[in-house]
Amino acid sequence: MIRDESNVKGRRTSQRDAIRAVFDQAGRPLSPQEVLLAAKKRVPRLGIATVYRTVKGFVDEHFLATVDLPGEPPRYELAKLSHHHHFHCRSCGKAFDIPGCPGHMRLTTPAGFVVEEHEIVLYGRCPDCAKGK
């Protein structure tokens, strides 16, 4: 029997399908509000409570991972992505993936310290905001 991944925690619904599709197509971390705006194109009566509930379920199912940016509410992205970092646009507030990692954190680590993990967030303006759009 083939198991339908979109139905692991709850029954398959148009809301769940729409939210899953938003993340599959986004290519960047999204806030619940961004998910709501995009998913409403497929399910106009979708509400923010359903988005939060579905996103929580997707995190529990390991379909989504939480992206924490300092001083910001959490965003979410596909959990299957390899280790990478993020760019946060100070103008529009969107977060973007930065592929890969510069690595070699031990070269900048003080003597005697052991790095167990790291996060790098770059700040500035995305291409649309830099062009003044």
Return the CATH class of the largest domain.
Mainly Alpha
Mean pLDDT: 88
CATH fold type of the largest domain: Arc Repressor Mutant, subunit A
Class derived from helix and strand content = alpha+beta
Strand order of the largest sheet: 4-3-5
Name the assembly state.
Answer: single chain
Q: Which percent range describes the beta-strand content? A: 15-25%
Cα separation of the termini: 50 Å
Number of DSSP strand runs: 5
> Which superfamily, in CATH terms, is the homologous superfamily of the largest domain?
Winged helix-like DNA-binding domain superfamily/Winged helix DNA-binding domain
Major sheet: 3 strands, mixed
Quickly count the helices.
4
Number of individual domains: 2
Radius of gyration: 17 Å
Which stretches are poorly predicted, pLDDT < 50 over at least 5 residues? Answer: 1-8
Helical amount: 25-40%
CATH architecture of the largest domain: Orthogonal Bundle
Order of helices and strands: HHHEEEEEH
What's this entry about, in short?
The chain has 133 residues and is α+β, with helices and mostly antiparallel strands. The chain has helices at residues 14-26, 32-39, 48-60, 127-130, and strands spanning 64-67, 75-78, 85-89, 95-98, 121-124.
Structure, described:
This protein has 133 residues and is α+β, with helices and mostly antiparallel strands. It has 2 domains: 5-78, Winged helix-like DNA-binding domain superfamily/Winged helix DNA-binding domain (Arc Repressor Mutant, subunit A, Orthogonal Bundle); 85-130, 2-Layer Sandwich (Dna Ligase, domain 1), CATH 3.30.1490.190. The chain is 29% helix and 16% strand. It has 4 helices and 5 strands. It has helices spanning 14-26, 32-39, 48-60, 127-130; strands spanning 64-67, 75-78, 85-89, 95-98, 121-124. A 3-stranded mixed beta sheet has the order 4-3-5, with no helix packed on it. The chain has a two-stranded antiparallel sheet with strand order 1-2. A hairpin with a 5-residue loop joins strand 3 and strand 4. Helix 1 packs across helix 2. The longest helix is centred in the first third of the chain and has 13 residues, at 14-26. The relative contact order is 0.14. The model is unreliable at 1-8 (pLDDT under 50).
